[in-house]
Specification:
- By secondary structure, the chain is an alpha/beta fold.
- Helices cover 36% and strands 20% of the residues.
- It is built from ten helices and ten strands.
- An eight-stranded mixed sheet has the order 1-2-4-3-5-6-9-10, with helices on both faces. A two-stranded antiparallel sheet has the order 7-8.
């Protein structure tokens, strides 16, 4: 049962219906934007911590959760226009935008187009340039895409089976699983006509989002607002599955996470530092990508110091 103290609503924006959560609160508007695949509910535990000083809202991107699933509109311009029209619908002139992972696109593009509407920006392990030359070469060496549980069965008849499959195939997700994720996963799935629990997001939408993610060149040099960018230096331990990975596979995963991936990450961090010299940059060593869940107190404290 969803016990987070919010109201749930919809707005008609950019020709579709977008879902959002509103925790209310006093002060400037603070808008959370989720990662690819996640809904506004991913912030159910974290967002209410800010209501003493902010009016806190989270938006569910098109193609996710309870928002509409149009076949098109997953490019940076349309995704950002969704945010603009959402804010207009709620009569919000200015806001602090907080984005996790893929929300880098909306944060950067919105700040470039509408600098007067952005009070501050917070990137939660989000400020990455995936168009850098080394990114594709490094990601091609990612062993995780070729390692799956040997007995994976995608035909889930119950949500419990679906969750078990997700956790087994994605150890990093299993590491943050709890009541929050039990609620969030309900926004990922639907029942097929045959009675199976399947993803709400179609493969076509998933591909369109991935294409956008890997082709968007961040416009971070145009950011004028104060910025906090939190980077997570991943801990390879979160990605290991001892019950089915061989020793060789585990070694490959550790090498990729601990040695290869940080090469691209360090390039991104230094580029962001050059492009946004006024940004406050914080790193979490041996951390988890879902930093606001796994390292909740640390992220909350860093955001609070930045805001005040």
């Amino acid at each position: 049962m969803d016990t987070s103290p919010h109201t749930s609503g919809f707005v008609n924006a950019n020709g579709i219906r977008l879902h959002y959560l509103d925790w209310s609160g006093d002060g400037p508007v603070l808008v959370f934007l989720a990662a690819m695949g996640c809904s506004a509910h991913i912030f159910d535990k974290f967002a209410p911590r800010f209501t003493e000083n902010f009016h806190v809202i989270a938006l569910t991107r098109r193609g996710h959760g309870d928002s509409d699933y149009p076949e098109t509109g997953y490019d940076p311009d349309t995704l950002t226009e969704d945010v603009r029209q959402f804010l207009d619908a709620l009569k919000i002139d200015q806001a602090i935008l907080v984005g996790h992972s893929m929300a880098n696109i909306e944060l950067c593009h919105f700040a470039a187009l509408y600098p007067e509407r952005v009070l501050k920006l917070v990137f939660l392990d989000a400020a990455y340039d995936r168009t850098l030359p080394g990114y594709k070469a490094i990601m091609e060496k990612n062993p995780l895409k070729n390692i799956q549980p040997p007995d994976t069965n995608n035909d889930s008849h119950t949500i419990e089976q679906y969750v078990a499959s997700c956790k087994r195939a994605n150890p990093a997700l299993a590491a943050i699983w709890g009541k929050l994720m039990d609620e969030e996963v309900l926004n990922w799935v639907k029942k097929s006509p045959e009675g199976y629990v399947i993803d709400r997001m179609s493969p076509a939408i998933s591909k369109a989002l991935n294409d956008t993610l890997t082709s968007y060149t961040p416009e971070d040099s145009k950011i004028q607002a104060p910025v906090l960018s939190i980077y997570v230096i991943l801990d390879s331990a979160y990605f290991l599955a001892p019950d089915y990975m061989t020793e060789g596979q585990k070694k490959q995963v550790v090498e990729f996470i601990d040695t290869l991936r940080p090469i691209h990450q360090r390039e991104c961090i230094e580029q962001f530092r050059r492009n946004v010299p006024h940004a406050r940059i914080v790193e979490i060593p041996k951390g988890h990508h879902y930093c606001f869940i796994k390292h909740e107190d640390f992220v909350f404290n860093e955001m609070s110091k930045f805001f005040f």
